[in-house]
Each structure stands twice: as structure tokens, then as C-alpha cells.
Amino acid sequence: MASRTNALFMIGSAPPEGTLVKIPEDDDTTIAFVDSGGSSFIECYADSVVTLKGETFTIASPCDCSVALTYFDNSEQLFPVELDSELMDDVFPVAESIVEEEFGEELVLQRTPQTLTLVGELEEEEDEEEIDEDDEDAMDDEEEVEILISFEHKGQEFHLVRLLDPVLLVGKSDPSSPERRLLLSPEESDKVMPLLEDLFLKQQE
């Protein structure tokens, strides 16, 4: 059986323009998706590959559990802490320490690009608090989440939540390192994501 690396790089070098090529589900090779600044990366499993306007893109999902730090505002809506914000700089080390205290070496909270991740085996708990869709409208159009831990910091209560909906990342090929992908900048994302959405819709027709 070919590895994911072979599936990605021996697919005829690149899929035909506008064709979405799925990667076999049983192929579990990991690919590093690097942020635009090159300072951090997130390990992913490739889902599919597509060529748009002559450039090849890989759609992938994080290998580890996608999580977010969140808080309720005065109107009881759940808001995520922005990844690159000063608030995240302040709150993340606290959450990281609490996860270490609660789970020891079993779970590690990582500040990976585009989504925080929780490394380790996260057991399913029947009594974990799940947030209804009506209570989470501020979280990306009714994204379902599950509260894992809650803590207070500087008078504000924060929640580390598991993202129950699939998280997909898009990266472009890195000419200097074929084994990894470069995450899209906000400007690139604004151009590429509408094209990908149109392509997905056509595939479902």
C-alpha cells in the first residue's frame, strides 16, 4: 500500500486543474502545515489535493484534537479567544498549566497555528457539558463544542472546549520542502477559499 507521501507526490505531480483528488482514508502519513511566518506548524492528515489556477493545494485535518479557549460575554454568547491576540498571550500559559496539572503527561495543550490542539488520547466522557447550538452562535455559525475544563483568570471565566465539527486546513506546496505545506495567508485565503467552496459544491451535485 502506498504511503500518504506517495499518494501526494506521485499523483502525476499535480491533479488536473479544478479536479479534487481524495487521499485514501487508511493512509496515515502526517504532513507539517507551516504558518506563513515559518515559526510554527501543525501536524495534519491530508484529505484531498486540488490544483487551482496552476497552483496545487492540500486540504487536511489536524492529527490531534482541535480545541479553543473561549469565554461568555455579557449576553451569554460564547466567543473564542483569537489565536494571535494579546488575550491569548495572557490566557494560554494558564490553560496550558491547568491541563498539565489535570492530566499530567496524558494530554498536552499546544498553541498550533489556525487552531489550538490537544495532544494525547482524549477519553469520551458522558457527563461532559455540551453547549447547545443556540448558545454558541458567536462560534462560527453554530459550531458545536464541548467544554473540557473551566477556569477563572483575572476575574473572567474561560473554557477550554473541544471543537466537535471537523476542522479543515488548506496549504499550498512548498517548493523548498515537498514534504510540508505552507498555510495560506489571510489574503491568499480570501482568494482561494471561495474557489474551493464552489468546487466542493460542484462535487456534491
Description of the molecule:
By secondary structure, the chain is an alpha+beta fold. Helices cover 21% and strands 35% of the residues. It contains three helices and twelve strands; from the N terminus they run H-E-E-E-E-E-E-H-E-E-E-E-E-E-H. The protein has helices at 4-9, 86-103, 186-204, and strands at 20-22, 30-34, 41-52, 55-62, 65-72, 78-80, 108-110, 116-119, 145-153, 156-163, 169-173, 180-183. Strands 5, 6, 7, 8, 9 and 10 form a six-stranded antiparallel sheet that branches. A hairpin with a 2-residue loop joins strand 3 and strand 4. It is elongated and about 55 Å long.
How would you sum up the major sheet? 6 strands, antiparallel
SSE pattern, N- to C-terminal: HEEEEEEHEEEEEEH
Alpha-carbon Rg, integer: 18 Å
Helix content, binned percent: 10-25%
> Which term fits the overall shape?
elongated
Structural class: alpha+beta
- Write down the overall mean pLDDT: 85
What percentage of amino acids are in beta strands? 35-45%
Q: What are the segments in which pLDDT stays under 50 over at least 5 consecutive residues?
A: 1-12, 133-137
Alpha plus pi helix count: 3
Counting DSSP E segments of at least 2 residues, the number of strands comes to 12
Distance between the termini: 31 Å
Protein traits:
205 residues; 5-stranded mixed barrel; alpha+beta; 12 strands; 35% strand; 3 helices; 21% helix; 6-stranded antiparallel sheet
Topology readout:
Elements: H1 4-9, E1 20-22, E2 30-34, E3 41-52, E4 55-62, E5 65-72, E6 78-80, H2 86-103, E7 108-110, E8 116-119, E9 145-153, E10 156-163, E11 169-173, E12 180-183, H3 186-204
Parallel strand pairs: 2-12
Antiparallel strand pairs: 1-3, 2-3, 3-4, 4-11, 5-6, 5-8, 5-10, 7-8, 9-10, 11-12
